[in-house]
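Sequence in, structure out.
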Amino acid sequence: MIRFSLAAALLAGGLCCVYPACAAPLDEAGARHQIKELLAMPFATDLVGASKAERFAWVEKRNGVRNILAVDGTGIPKALTHFTQDDGTDLWGLALSPNGQALAYVEGGDPEYPDDPSPNPNFSVFGTHQSVNVVLEGGRQMQMGEGWNPTFSPDGHMLAFTRKGSLFLAPVGKMAKEVMTVRGNLTSLQWAPDGSALAFTLDRGTHALVGVWHIKPATMTFLAPALAQDSLPTFSPDGRSVAFVREHTPLTNQKNGKGLFWSIHVYDLASDRDHVAWIPPAGQGARFFAPEGSGLLWSDNNHILFPWEGSGWMRVCVVAAAGAGTPACLTPDKAEVSSYRLSQDRKTLFYTSNAGNVDVWHAWQQPLDGSPSRRLTQSEDMETDLALSGNKVGLIAASVTQTAHPVVVAQGGTSAPLVSPELPSDVHFVTPQTVVFHSADGVEVHGQLFLPEGKTQTSHAALVFVHGGPHRQMLPAFNSMSYYSNAYAMNQTLAAQGYSVLSVNYRSGTGYGEAFRNALETGRAGASEYRDVIAAATYLKARADVDPAHIGIWGGSWGGYLTALALARNSDIFAAGADFHGVHDMTQPDTLGLSPTENRKARDLEWQSSPVADIARWHAPVLLVHGDDDYNVEFEQSTLLAKMLSAQGVPYEEHSFPNERHAFLRMQDWLAAYTWMDTFFGRKLSPRHP
């Protein structure tokens, strides 16, 4: 069964060479050139808008160099920073003042680990640091100090940011001062509507607290401190209340039909009283999960919008702040939401969703007066992230041939790019087909099939690609996350060389509902998602144009784990693999609250779910690549595997990047890693062997 993406459907079934005209398969030099060209294409992220002016800003990575661009009503983008080197220095945490005249951003550091030591992949002699910077009207730059999470006050006159447990404040354009410090890490800064206070989350590891810092007098209040993980504080429009989420994380990921794990709280600041606005019932949606970068929103002083999977799908719902009544969901069922924002007048919800086709994402708007929802554009691009600026809607869009780029929605539903899309003239693209198949236990699995250009007279080599996360979804287009955009580019290059590539959205990924994301016995609890990997290989083996003896596999992070698992368990199916920073021993320390018997059972299952448990059956060659400053997956996971492969006499190729993080920060390192992989597969599989 094959279901095509929108773009492919327009091509009437087809394998199609998008650009340039169909040509002979790329050789190794041509492949290196193509992947370099694709990695160098401009890639946009961190789109933000000014609340009271028509002005957007975003980070653009071009040829590995990151800079911040902005555009106002003139429609002419302007560079606000002027960096020139691919040195791995990240730019992130963008914030525009309400009038759009000032922009704050973070230079350096790692957005996933903002309070840990800053990475230094370019070997700066004196190391690097993470700083908050401001671009003022007229372009003057000012460094405010070390930290992150810059947030402008409602009138735009003040800037707040944090570093670990310290809060810093400054009038915009002047040096920041530390106004308080506490044990833990401060996150989730939000100003009160009148600018008199800041709400925050204080993360102390075992628990997290929601607090309010009152600027005058300089005092701090914690809101109903408890034994939970409190997060996502947000002020009501009148500033009298703060809503937040309270979670009690379950000990295990086992399904629980009676557990109540989270609730929405509302704290009245005048009376110092907290009450529960709503507790989800047991069953689906009883565990809290939210799209990245999204949280609670007040539609007025009496109603709160929040993410919920009560129907089994990620939707935006609304509940009374007073705690009366049941929620009403605003976005469609049988569809997921990836981002959402409320209009300045709080009358319209804007969101991105895969409504109508779970493999395709578009932007929608839903009036809160009950009027029908409608799509914002009729574009065939994938639209997965959005930002609002005054009355304008900005989107991050991507397509089969265009990397993530910012667009603004115009009247009539047309989307105008904020920058002119650029496409290298000598790059080969095919339109990936969306395919649907089933695992041995009946689970429906979606994937994208990249087929070589033209028809071949003989069968050829093929590859299974497994993404990381695992809470991610690959699409039949460039991805809006840099890591997976790079992977898509590599899959296009592999297809241009003559491989068939099947990218698998295995269970535990996003986009297909809560039951799929929280599937039973995944990962260290039994590796059930590996059944989907085997189903993908079975799908390829059944194709007449694939040589079943020349099927490889590649992936990074969780995809590296699944690659290693495939080679350990089924070197008879997978002839070679490329494992980027994968997990190889899934065992963990005992969990408090579980009995010794339960912990032993869990540890045995974790071991059985690990690639190293089946190392004796591993004989297929593998490429190993890892950065040794990885905070997501310990570098030791790869050194351990190398030792065990050596003991078994298994052939492998090994590479490390000193000072690199999990998602390589320098384009040159991605290019090196992908070139190693391309050469490795060329030797071990040969895309079009005799």
